[in-house]
Design a protein that fits this description.
The chain is of the alpha+beta class. The chain has two domains: 6-135, Ribosomal Protein S5, domain 2, CATH 3.30.230; 137-201, Alpha-Beta Plaits (2-Layer Sandwich). It is 32% helix and 37% strand. The chain is built from five helices and eleven strands. The protein has helices spanning 36-49, 82-91, 111-129, 150-159, 181-192; strands spanning 6-10, 17-21, 24-32, 55-62, 68-72, 97-104, 132-136, 138-146, 163-169, 172-180, 197-201. The protein has a five-stranded antiparallel β-sheet, sandwiched between helices. A hairpin with a 5-residue loop joins strand 4 and strand 5 (68-72). Helix 2 (82-91) packs parallel to helix 3.
Length: 202
């Protein structure tokens, strides 16, 4: 990854791209994904929209610090589709992304070299069409405190410009904050040293 607490990804799918090679058509799709369940749902969607295609090859990468990935040739010769697609994910240094290349066979065999080149080009065009953004790796903390300590907690949150992602403000209060990884320890210590206020990572 680029810096120790940032990563690159996409937040929405671009328009599908089209690459043609010897009558075969290669449609490229990119999806922001966070889980294998997301991947599965996106693949179901693409197959539904392109049910008459011959191959639905794909690669995905998930995670920021612990990476998991998969490349699938979907019936094309071994390593001629999924890995060239995954190579482009690595080349663009993006994660939490799924690239699917749908092939409509045009009657002319492309050979392994031709397939590798076509799937790689299709994935490259798709990534070039995507809006790639940089995000920070965040750590989430839950702060638990009595209502009487609300002002103390809120003052720190305001001073440090912390991002609240969830809050329950009753007699027993809970606030969830999301903090950039490199600042997380400092913020944790501030709250951890306060009387009657508990903080833990979630």
């Amino acid at each position: 990854m680029t810096e120790n607490d940032t990563y690159k990804t996409i937040t929405k799918s671009p328009e599908p791209t089209l690459f043609k090679e010897k009558n075969s058509k290669f449609f490229g799709f990119a999806f922001p994904v966070k889980t294998e369940e997301d991947v599965k749902n996106c693949l179901i969607e693409v197959k539904k929209d392109h049910h008459s295609a011959r191959h639905w090859c794909y690669a995905y990468q998930l995670g920021t610090e612990t990476i998991s990935y998969r490349a699938n040739d979907d019936g094309e010769p071994s390593n001629s589709a999924g890995m060239p697609i995954y190579g482009q994910i690595q080349s663009f240094d993006v994660t939490n992304i799924l690239i699917v290349v749908v092939r409509y066979f045009g009657g002319v065999k492309l050979g392994v070299g031709g397939l590798i080149s076509s799937y790689r080009t299709s994935a490259q065009l798709t990534l070039e069409a995507s809006k790639i953004i940089k995000k920070t790796i965040n750590i989430d903390y839950r702060i638990t405190f009595d209502y009487k300590n609300m002002n103390t907690v809120m003052r720190i949150i305001k001073e440090k410009k912390l991002n609240i992602t969830n809050q329950i403000l009753e007699l027993d209060c809970q606030i969830t904050i999301s903090i950039r990884k490199k600042e997380a320890e400092t913020i944790f210590d501030i709250f951890n040293n306060l009387y009657e206020i508990k903080i833990k990572a979630i």
